[in-house]
């Protein structure tokens, strides 16, 4: 998440007195200041899906795997999973982001039956009327770090992830920002390997891969890691 001139993302969220959901929606409704948007998926995810196809290969030819990308923004990652044949769902708090993702998807050339963008709050279930209750794969990049740790949301994130990933399925995290001083405010709020481990092991995930990506976005300053967590 790089910055432009004017108030930083951190300043804007600090000025909300804790109502961060309204700020995310306001940023998307305005649409002119979206500093996290890289216009593409991280090459770290592109490489993971190419290098570890077993993560997204169904056990039977008749099975179609499902994936959820919470806080999907314009949906680049949703479309990447769809391009691998998964039935792919993007979740966004902001209805303007959902509209932007739908517009972006039209240029992808992908079968529209393979992707779906849903408007809702990750921490509730009311957006799940037209989605599976649980998914084979969930992908987190720049979502956990978008949640203010002082609001107790990290533990709730982990509990919700445990409810959303099928038993035997995987949560893929592109861990970011690992370089950032833990005392600094977000978003993005700083994270560490130990924080992911503490949160996810407590709710029944076992880490089965921990990979230093060979390609990554500059925003991670070369510190991003890919972790793959199996739901027991
Ligand atoms: C830092 S942005 C990342 C967007 C996207 N993953 C990307 O990399 O371009 C975080 C996104 O999470 C969304 N978001 C924040 N809280 C959410 C919630 N509780 N449920 C669903 N989406 C949420 C915001 O609207 C925002 O688009």
Automatic annotation (TrEMBL):
Q: Name one GO biological process term.
A: methylation
Q: Which UniProt keywords apply?
A: Methyltransferase, Phosphoprotein, S-adenosyl-L-methionine, Transferase
Q: Name one GO molecular function term.
A: S-adenosylmethionine-dependent methyltransferase activity
Q: Which InterPro entries match?
A: SAM-dependent_MTases_sf, TPMT
CDD domains linked? AdoMet_MTases
- Tell me the Pfam families matching this sequence: TPMT (PF05724)
Q: Which Gene3D superfamilies match?
A: Vaccinia Virus protein VP39 (3.40.50.150)
Q: What is this protein called?
A: S-adenosyl-L-methionine-dependent methyltransferase
From what organism does this protein derive? Orbilia javanica
